[in-house]
Fold:
Amino acid sequence: MMNNNNNFANSSLGGSYPGGRYPSTYAAAASSTAHTYRYSGESDDDDNDEIPTMPWDQYGWIPREKSGKQTTPNKVRNELQRYIDQCKAEGSLTQTRIIEQMGVNSNSFRKFMDPATYKNQWSATANGTYWAAAKLLARLAHEKELAKMTGKRKIAVATAGAATDSPPRKKNSTEAKLGALELIRSINAVDVSVYAVYDTCPQVVAGINSFLQRDGMTKAYLLSALGDINSNSLNTFLSGKKQDQCGNVTYRAAYVFLEKLRILEGKSKSAARRINEVENPRGVRLYVLFVSPVIAIASQQMMFLFVDEC
Structure:
């Protein structure tokens, strides 16, 4: 096993990692090229709601060029910097937000982005930022390619429709599902700390129903995104009245998910949300108050005794 890693390090990269091997966490598997995007579990069956695993989410994934060689830390660093600069120019994302989405700390990020830190550029593969950035760039490249393919299909359909005077085709089901899954991955990549809930149950229900109306979105996808919540819990929460489902596990999970979606899309807080924050600075109650009839009767009797003694 060690010999295979050494051979890989010396042949496919045009260089070697110090010691002739890569960190054990990332050393497994260098068989298939990463530029070929395939979905495990992908099917033409519209009823198949299994969430596929993208190549960069699989254990042992290694970023590669079309030639099959591993992408160098220098190239990852340069592409990441261009992406950060582009986001800053567009005003879409800050560097801090991008670091949070990658799930790395600022110290590791700064160390990786400074090439002078490493005598041998391949030493940078020991920094988790290399792998997090490579995954981010792979996902962005895939989304760009997917958008390009979708655009070509739309142009082709529009041209054919104009020529034959027939209505344009509906969005492909598989295409819509892939878009929905990419959206969920982007939402879950948002790093946000939520200590209290500031939306009421009806407000969260409205947010869920709106989210489920998006192209390709299904309850199965949403349940998985919320932490594999039971479908009965979700349905019960959606059919609740006012705050009677405040103790439902779906409540907080969905609130956090929708909060990440709001941040991802750059939307401001609603007026109702701001009012809730003022009226309930510690957040709304996440449990159901229940008073036993026995306790209630006993409390009334104690009150009567107190009045008689007075």
Observations:
- DSSP finds twelve helices and no strands in the chain.
